[in-house]
Predict the structure.
Amino acid sequence: MRVLAVALACLAITACSKSTTADLSHDVKDAGHDLKAEAIKIKNDPDIRKAGADAKKVGHDLAVSVKQDAAVAKVDADKAGDKAKHTANDVKNDVKD
């Protein structure tokens, strides 16, 4: 998107007279400064910072929960594997008898 804006600005500058080019250049610079100022305001906005901190906390809580659930699933899988192994041994012994 930025490349398109720069390309259009360059095209407009080359197609205009010197005074129009100077005006356009000034307008583009002003727009850049305005965008930078707004980006700084957004970056420093307490609500935006709080939202970022909240998102970080939710991500952390989710990771902890997934890790705990994975540990429980591993224990359950190990128990199921042991049970299957014992059942297989029981069947094997029953077949031998």
